[in-house]
Amino acid sequence: MFQIRLHGRGGQGVVTAAEILSVAAFAEGRHAQAFPSFGSERTGAPVVSFCRIDDREIRTREPVMEPNAIIIQDATLVHQVDLFAGLVHDGYALVNTSRDFAELGFDHTLMSFRHDRFMTCPATEFALEHLGRPLPNAALLGGFAALTGQISIEAIDTAVKERFEGSVGERNAAAAAAAYAFVVSKMKELTRASSD
Amino acid sequence: MLRQIEGSRAIAETVALCRPEVVCAYPISPQTHIIEAVGAMVKSGVLTSCEFINVESEFAAMSVAIGASATGARSYTATASQGLLFMVEAVFNASGLGLPIVMTLANRAIGAPINIWNDHSDAMAVRDAGWIQLFAETNQEAADLHVQAFKLAEELSVPVMVCVDGFILTHAVEGVDILDQASVDSFLPPYEPRQVLDVDEPVSIGAMVGPEAFEEVRYLAYLRQRDALERIPEIARTFNDLTGRDSGGLIRTYRTDDAEIVVVALGSVLGTIKDAVDIRRDLGERIGVVGITTFRPFPSEAVRSALANARQVVVLEKAFSTGFGGVLSTDVAMSLRDMDFDLRTVVAGLGGRAITRRSIEEMLEKAQHDDLESLTFLDLDQGAVERERERMRTVRRSGPSAENLLRDRTADLSKAVRRGA
After folding, report:
1. DSSP labels for B186-202?
2. Each residue's pLDDT tens digit in chain A (196 positions)?
3. Architecture of domain B251-377 in CATH?
4. What global pTM score does this model have?
5. What is the ipTM of this complex?
6. Using a CB-CB distance cutoff of 8 angstroms, which residues of chain A are in contact with residue B4?
7. Residue A43 is part of a domain; what is its CATH number?
């Protein structure tokens, strides 16, 4: 089972992102379960959602305690929330930011995890470019597909367009594709750097 | 068709396939998504021949459902928690009158203190209200139970409450196979009321009944619930023939055949329990699970035979009777009377506290060593409780306990942050 925890702020679509991810996994014939953290969500307040993907029926109903991957929609949450709590030692983290981990002050955290699995992605910028609105969730799902290989970008594309009709779907899918390409090329850079 | 869909949406679409003629409801979390979706389907014309009535309260919702049902209309509503309590007088009326209303209860804790999260206090508060109460383990079952509920309710003229864990199921997105209209139509015939308010053939429904007949009225209701114990498995079998799915029925057993310890529970927590049991089974422990799908009428005989060979029975409940202990436990104990058994009650998940697989495993470990107290509160913060007890002992005006606990907790957290923990 692959478990994902998504962190964001109310209004950023963190619940929708988990749902879309589960729909994408479903589109690939896998079992998936997405659910919110059931808080009294308010705009701007920290919100958490979860997604599980497996090849067999998912029975558990507990919150995701030990995620294999974390998607962070808003890096400023680090001041309020223990973003990396429970992340498995070889887990993935995708952070929406145009800065790097050193600038974010994540260096210390990074030391306990695999560097090649921690990735920043300027998803809000991709969203602004393609949607004209700062809603980074589709872009982050594209980045997630590239980083983890748990899901294909085609499935993300399908799920995004299923969730948002017409041009909104097209533009979100374009943001996802852009973020996917961005993360793929960053990973290639990392591989080159480490083999040099 | 199998779809990846929110539980509330799956319930709403399935209710629509049952062709309700009147839907009336007042929004309350975590039921709201269900009612919003049904309302939208009426408005868009997906659900035809149905009147959606916005009411001013839950009391009105159940009252309108009673009126509608009494005129022969298939009637549906949904609520949760305080909403159920607000309609409770009408809840008793619906069953007392023998009106086959179907209601979804998106299970949620009851205040005070105010809490919107899941537990079973609401369902337990009305367990004696004369309704049939079915509990869903998954969203697939939640959807399927509604189709069975209408059939059962209308055959027996008894209202049915489908209990679905609030948020945990209602807000979870997972694969649900939504039936097609032809299948539902073949399973659920049009409603043929036993009694109907009709201007051409006037009758009184719900007039005064004195001591000369009241007991018999109640006894007839008891017999109808006994009949339900026969009909529920039959309806589940017919449903299985139609869909191939094992939804509904009285109870469901999991790895109980050679089990020395059996955990009994209601609703969605069964999934997490099964995962924990599989792990303990791999360690060689003989543990099984009994899920109670039909809580009212209580399937005593089925429970008795499922637990006949267990050395220890652990009843895990998301509610309790404050002055006594387990609620479900009492029913299980009654079912096992004159048998040699050892029963433990574990209260868990109150007000939405997560029930983790790890905590269930620890509970099973204790049960294995006969270390489980007769009444345990899973993951209780004993230190927090002691601190408040001490405050109450030493200070007369110790203030509101709930707020004291929260303040202590915030202080602990900020201390931990300062320590850099």
Report:
1. HHSPPP--SS---TTS-
2. 999 999 999 888 899 999 999 999 999 999 999 999 866 667 888 999 999 999 999 999 999 999 999 999 999 998 888 899 999 999 999 999 999 888 888 877 778 899 899 999 999 999 999 999 999 999 999 999 999 999 999 999 999 999 999 999 999 999 999 999 999 999 999 888 877 6
3. 3-Layer(aba) Sandwich (3.40)
4. 0.96
5. 0.95
6. 22-23, 26-27, 32
7. 3.40.920.10
